[in-house]
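stage 2 :: seqdesign
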């Protein structure tokens, strides 16, 4: 008779210290790894994790910039796919819709959106740069997700980004401190919901509309 094993607890990845602190607050003792900022560090983290057990769920969480006027500071974006500003191909994340439904069914500080995320090698600044990025079909931008996204081919893998800056307010604007606090709260709350996430444990009856 085969013994049933409990699903593995997720491994949480966060690029920066502030993001990792927010994620640790929600993880409540779960494993959180700070991977560093940008494509080089994200690629290095992915390479290490590709050798880990394929049963390990991995969640990349952090801040992001909005490319759509419908997003507000503190909203959460679950990446349906990850694109790069330097490449044409996108990596689809098959577990994203069910995770968006799971988060959408919880009482979180911000709204939950499901859509493509574009990764760039440097901070995106200015209205023109945001417009060009949005033209690729993305609703949010970050600096790591596309380079971690190939983990979805070997592991249950999702990306959740909390919006800090929105169109018209770059990350260095006077609105940033208040927006960052909203994003921190949302990251911690999302992590708390995902502490026991696994594709095997998701309740498929929870629903959220795609935006």
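stage 2 :: out
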């Amino acid at each position: 008779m085969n013994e049933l094993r409990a699903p593995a607890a997720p491994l949480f990845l966060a690029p920066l210290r502030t993001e990792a602190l927010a994620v640790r607050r929600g993880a409540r003792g779960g494993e959180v790894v700070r991977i560093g900022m940008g494509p080089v560090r994200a690629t290095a983290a992915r390479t290490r994790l590709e050798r880990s057990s394929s049963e390990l769920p991995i969640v990349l969480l952090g801040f992001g910039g909005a490319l759509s006027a419908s997003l507000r500071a503190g909203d959460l974006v679950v990446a349906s796919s990850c694109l790069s500003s330097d490449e044409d191909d996108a990596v689809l994340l098959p577990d994203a819709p069910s995770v968006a439904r799971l988060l959408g069914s919880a009482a979180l500080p911000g709204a939950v959106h499901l859509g493509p995320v574009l990764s760039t090698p440097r901070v995106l600044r200015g209205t023109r740069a945001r417009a060009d990025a949005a033209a690729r079909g993305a609703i949010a931008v970050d600096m790591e997700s596309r380079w971690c996204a190939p983990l979805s081919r070997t592991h249950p893998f999702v990306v959740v980004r909390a919006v800090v800056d929105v169109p018209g307010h770059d990350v260095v604007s006077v609105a940033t401190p208040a927006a960052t606090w909203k994003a921190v709260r949302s990251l911690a709350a999302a992590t708390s919901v995902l502490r026991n996430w696994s594709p095997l444990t998701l309740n498929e009856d929870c629903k959220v509309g795609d935006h």
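stage 3 :: structure notes
- Confidence is low (pLDDT under 50) at residues 203-211.
- Residues 11-193 form a domain with the Rossmann fold fold (CATH 3.40.50.1580).
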